[in-house]
Design brief:
Largest sheet: 5 strands, parallel
Distance between the termini: 26 Å
CATH class of the largest domain: Alpha Beta
CATH superfamily of the largest domain: NAD(P)-binding Rossmann-like Domain
Number of strands: 7
Helix content: 25-40%
CATH topology of the largest domain: Rossmann fold
Number of helices: 3
Number of domains: 2
Strand order of the largest sheet: 3-2-1-4-5
Length: 143
């Protein structure tokens, strides 16, 4: 694997999520669980976002949205937009997770579970997120 596993302290750190569908919602919930200050930029969003303590910006992504963010998640349903976000983030030295292209990611988000203060993360290096999720489910059953 070419990735280096790491756990980040995101408490009170500014994180940007672009997109507001199911994938973006799942990533946003994980970020909030980690204590991040999340801004979500999207022209429309799943109603579940309205219940979350996030800053919602109703419009399409603009390069200036990256200002101040330490991480960015591109989770739109548009391949070209996600690609453009990845390029813009990289140019600014910001690590980006591109939901539809593991090859463009500066970091990957593993399948993870937490029990009694122990957190386990499973990754396939972006090759098979379904396999990682299945392994997480099996570990969950064992624990």
């Amino acid at each position: 694997m070419r990735h280096y596993p790491i756990y980040l302290d995101l408490k009170d750190q500014p994180v940007l999520v672009i997109g507001a569908g199911k994938v973006a919602l799942r990533k946003t919930q994980g970020l909030l669980d980690a204590g991040a200050r999340v801004t979500v930029v999207a022209p429309q969003w799943d109603a579940a976002f309205l219940k979350l303590p996030v800053r919602l910006v109703r419009r399409r992504f603009q390069g200036s949205d990256l200002a101040g963010a330490i991480l960015v998640f591109a989770a739109t349903d548009d391949r070209r937009t996600n690609h453009r976000i990845g390029i813009a983030a990289k140019a600014r030295g910001i690590l980006a997770n591109i939901a539809d292209s593991a090859d463009e990611c500066g970091f990957l988000v593993p399948a993870r579970l937490e029990r009694d203060g122990v957190q386990i993360a499973v990754s396939t290096g972006g090759v098979s997120p379904r396999l990682a999720a299945e392994m997480r489910r099996k570990l969950e059953e064992i624990l």
